[in-house]
Amino acid sequence: MMITRPPLAPPISILMYHQVGRFNNPRKHRAVYCDVGRFERQMAWLHWRGYNVISLAQAYAGLYEGQPIPEKAVVLTFDDGCDNFREYAWPILKKYQYPVTMFLVAGMLGGTTQWMDDVPEEASLMDIATIRELRKEGVSFGAHSVNHVRLSECPPQVAREEIFGSKAKLEDVLGEAVPDFCYPYGYYNQQVADMVEEAGYKTGLTCLRAAANYARSPFELPRKAISYGDTLPGYLWKIHMKNVPKKSLSKGPKG
């Protein structure tokens, strides 16, 4: 794989969300939850302070195709495809006309987050009708494997089926190419990243904490997780200060 080093400035912050809604203060899996009130304040701040919320495709073009990267660039991503996105997050994103990419677990559409343990109740996942409707409204979708498994811990053939199979399933649902992949739990290694490239994806998103500019390749893009406890100052610190990785980006699992 030819490694293309992206420019280190201006930094691009790819933010990672999961669920947005109203939750009792969660004691575990706090990075999976974001209170809708805080989410609305976060999006309002981005708008008020002139941040450039760009699509994942625009970020790729800036990092790897020589297109200009705007100052204060932010990308919004959501993992898992939880149905509460439609009720709580999407109206706010539409208000500000912010692009977003949602990563779907292709084998569980219309099911629940059954892979999560130690939670009071599983969250419902979007069904096919909802996905198609949101696509018409402008939401972009990517693949998050077939069964939400730790790919670097799977036998190679199983990992391959998860990576290739999720692309095929979602392209059948959407009737269009699915160019983006997100590693469940952030678990990946070089073999897994190579499979993502071989499958025909353009990007692979991780749970590594840094600006996207520090990726070793398009298949190891860092993101910044937004957690339930993040205040607005903490949110801004992640965007502006958490850019240089503390650890090597060469291996997983991380996060």
TrEMBL record:
One GO process term, biological-process aspect: carbohydrate metabolic process
Keywords in alphabetical order: Signal
Ranges of residues in domain NodB homology: 72-255
Recorded superkingdom: Bacteria
This protein's name: Polysaccharide deacetylase family protein
One GO MF term attached to the UniProt entry: hydrolase activity, acting on carbon-nitrogen (but not peptide) bonds
Entry's localization field: Secreted
SUPFAM superfamilies reported for this sequence: Glycoside hydrolase/deacetylase
Main location: secreted
PANTHER family recorded: POLY-BETA-1,6-N-ACETYL-D-GLUCOSAMINE N-DEACETYLASE, PTHR34216
GO cellular component, one term: extracellular region
